[in-house]
Amino acid sequence: MIAFLRSPRGRWFVLAGLWVVVIVLGIGGFIQQGREAGLHRSGLDTVYLTLQLATLDYDGSAGDMNWRLQIGRFVVPLMAASTVLITASIVFAGELNLLRIGRSSGHTVVAGLGDVGKRLASAFADAGERVVVVDPDQSLVAAATSGDDRLRGLVGDPTDPGTLARVRVDRARRLVVAGPEDARNVRAASAAATLAAGPTRGRPALRCAVQLTDAELASLMRATDLDSAGGMRLSYFSLHERAARSLLSENPPFTGAGDHPMVIGLGRLGRSLVVALGQQWAHQHRHRRAPLTLVDPYAGGRWAELTQRHPALAEVFEPELIDVDLAWPSADGVGALATLLAERPPSWVAVVVDDEPLALANAVFLHQRLPEGRVPVVVRMGSGAGLGTLLESVGGGTARAFPGVSVFPFLDRTCTVESVDGGIREQLAESVHEDYLAALPDGGTGTGLQRPWADLDDDERDLSRRRVDGIVGDLAALGCELVPLRRWGAPAVTLTDDETALLAEREHQRWYDDRSAAGWTYAATRDDAARTNPLLVPWADLAPAVQQTNLDAARALQPMLARAGFEIARASAGPAVS
Questions:
Q1: Among 390, 398, 480, 538, which residue has the fewest nearby CB atoms (within 10 Å)?
Q2: What is the pTM of this model?
Q3: Among the four given CATH numbers 3.40.50.2000, 2.30.29.170, 2.40.70.10, 3.40.50.720, the one describing domain 247-420
Q4: In this predicted model, what pLDDT tens digit does every residue of 563-573 receive, in sequence order?
């Protein structure tokens, strides 16, 4: 109610209501005045006098002022002033908005106000940032800023340097380009780079995060965040790639014998999910292939495309491809799917088609065909609200409408400050933690650090961040660097035994320094309460079995980086270990 009264529409309703009250008081007051003075006034005379009162033109000569007229003549000037002020605020709102935007500094600019851009703007505002939004569509700007005083909006083309200059990108802290078209997003970033190349006057570089809907393209472009410099630090992010990792972290697909995942829908999210599934399986089960069912109108073609880009997928999965359009299914496609569910049922299902009603309908269909509650079914929804609430409890109780079917809220999980603002090291740190969760014996989560990344506090996340810093430094010591992973399964850099030993020794030294700085000391037995650990000794003093464990972890570094979307490359020049 308070928010409504503070809105422009609410103020107009209040003002109109008060004018009605004033008119009622005026009419009643003049009727009473005429009756007490013995005057016979017509209805039109009473209305005319009331209008005089409302327009501040009544001089009181028509008779004595009763209490109704006394209230009216004192309230009317305030009402008139309020009306003028509100009207002026509407007339000059655009100019005032431009003036406020023009004075902005250290703010966040969000360009592109589709579902992603609007949510990101709200997320940054929730984080305490001053946000300016820009989009060519006036209705989208109005929808984003209406009722939210934290957002300033400008209608304009973000690929136009003039528009970016008006939102003061040159003085902004951050630019987030979140439009639906990759080409336009890149052009907007290019225009911003031109403005950021001007005099900075000691201001930090503009941090520009660009959304690319093509996860493969985003993966290839991400390395720019590792070495970008100058007036603008440029990074690229793919919500589909991040969503795939988040979905698997929240819904572990591999729990033991008989693992058989099924993915329904091979759009951008579905393809990213298949790659992430393959990398996770390869990490947990070396030299073993798993059955995988893919359902899509073009399942065969999508699989061929995926294996061409990522050859390792063919070594990880034994695919069963069902070409069926779930919106307009053929008899053969439905029959193949029904046979599979009856004879070779999956152990885990992800329904990730973009059409939410279609996704929900297929999730319910699978719930009816699979053993109830025993096969997890994850269905992609835009958010946890809306259609996704149909899967929640019945009548507010604890019983779920469809046991075993859960919602993955795509936009809720991906449209966050961390998704675009963490940089590549933050993304690698999250991948390190997700890799740790995937390696747990039961493939699940629990307490302590055995929780999804989103549930960890900042201190707990720092453990993974320091691990990433150590990896970058260790590779530099070998004369190597991180580059985007082009093709998962293609030949990679082969590290020598000496290089692997150096990585293991440096990682142990990093862990030793980290634990020592936290107050841990050496003791023959480990005691977490007393902060003692028998491994707090130099590398040379470690038992051979412990050294071997660290060497195995160093050898597993490249597969872990591949799961995060990176690989190791030899630098053009640098130190080498012989």
A1: 398
A2: 0.68
A3: 3.40.50.720
A4: 777 888 887 54
